[in-house]
């Protein structure tokens, strides 16, 4: 099939998509939109180096003109920081698809990776769906399953998702080659978790109610983009960032949640929760990045003290 697709993006994150289509000789061009920043500058440089046509604009008319001049049969929106208008979406003959990092309709919204890790999901999906007026609501074109490790952080899972882009796009391209159009199915109407933007409150640890698995997931979901979770040391010592936590087999014996039960070089900094103990592995503040034991020593944390 000689038809080509155009990518609409705001980031170098789309390079895996661009490279796949370029190598398949199916890339018409790239529309870059959003406020100029080092990420976009780097993307422009790499496109120039590969002699890939691109248009940097936020103007609807210029986007439409580029798509028409490139004769793009379809558009692909990926990692785009601004909403693309319906006239642009509808310009290509076959329409435009959007790539979303969740098994839609679950985790619609701007932060699907964070909330899937935080909720302890064991696998996710890349979903290609038709772009429509409402975010993440269009009919599904194709999906690709992606495993989620218990050790994945926000960035590691994001990188893993990028690596599966060629697998997803292979399914999309096969549809166009076989059927000359996208074969779609409506999203399920069942209730779903909305992946809203992350607030400072989301990063705080509620020591009284959180379980060990919930804390570990909360921390890795925010690592590194949000600095993990917020660790409040007390009114005199301020806050720190908890970047990694893990399970501890030390008994809690009805100790109040949030209480430090051990500070030692071999067992680290261990805190009781309502179901079991956790070790605070990596902590950072303005002075540096420490393991739990060294952090406790430097800031004079000891057994029986409590986090607030």
Automatic annotation (TrEMBL):
Residues 197-284 form the Formyl transferase C-terminal domain. InterPro entries: Formyl_trans_C (IPR005793), Formyl_transf_N (IPR002376), Formyl_transf_N_sf (IPR036477), Formyl_transferase-like_C_sf (IPR011034). Residues 61-162 form the Formyl transferase N-terminal domain. One of its GO terms (molecular function) is methionyl-tRNA formyltransferase activity. GO terms for cellular component: cytosol. This is Methionyl-tRNA formyltransferase. It comes from Oceanospirillum sediminis.
């Amino acid at each position: 099939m000689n038809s080509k697709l155009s990518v609409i993006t705001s980031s170098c994150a789309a390079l895996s998509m661009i490279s796949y289509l370029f190598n398949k000789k199916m890339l018409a061009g790239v529309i870059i939109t959003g406020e100029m920043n080092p990420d976009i500058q780097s993307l422009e440089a790499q496109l120039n180096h590969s002699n890939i046509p691109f248009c940097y604009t936020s103007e609807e008319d210029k986007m439409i003109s580029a798509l028409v001049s490139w004769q793009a049969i379809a558009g692909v929106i990926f990692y785009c920081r601004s909403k693309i208008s319906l006239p642009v979406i509808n310009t290509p003959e076959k329409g435009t698809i959007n790539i979303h990092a969740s098994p839609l309709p679950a985790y619609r919204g701007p932060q699907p990776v964070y909330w899937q890790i935080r909720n302890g999901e064991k696998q996710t999906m890349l979903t290609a769906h038709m772009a429509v007026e409402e975010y993440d609501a269009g009919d599904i074109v194709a999906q690709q399953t992606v495993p989620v490790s218990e050790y994945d952080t926000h960035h590691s899972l994001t990188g893993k998702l990028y690596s599966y882009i060629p697998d997803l796009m292979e399914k999309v391209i096969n549809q166009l080659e076989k059927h000359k159009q996208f074969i779609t199915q409506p999203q399920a109407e069942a209730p779903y978790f909305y992946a809203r933007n992350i607030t400072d409150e989301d990063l705080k640890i509620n020591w009284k109610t959180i379980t060990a698995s919930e804390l570990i997931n909360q921390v890795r979901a925010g690592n590194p983009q949000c600095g993990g979770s917020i660790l409040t040391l007390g009114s005199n010592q301020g806050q720190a960032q908890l970047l990694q936590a893990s399970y501890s087999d030390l008994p809690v014996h009805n100790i109040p949640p949030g209480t430090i039960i051990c500070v030692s070089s071999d067992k680290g900094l261990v805190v009781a929760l309502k179901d079991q103990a956790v070790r605070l592995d990596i902590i950072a503040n303005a002075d540096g990045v420490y393991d739990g034991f060294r952090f406790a020593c430097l800031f004079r944390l000891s057994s029986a003290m409590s986090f607030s």
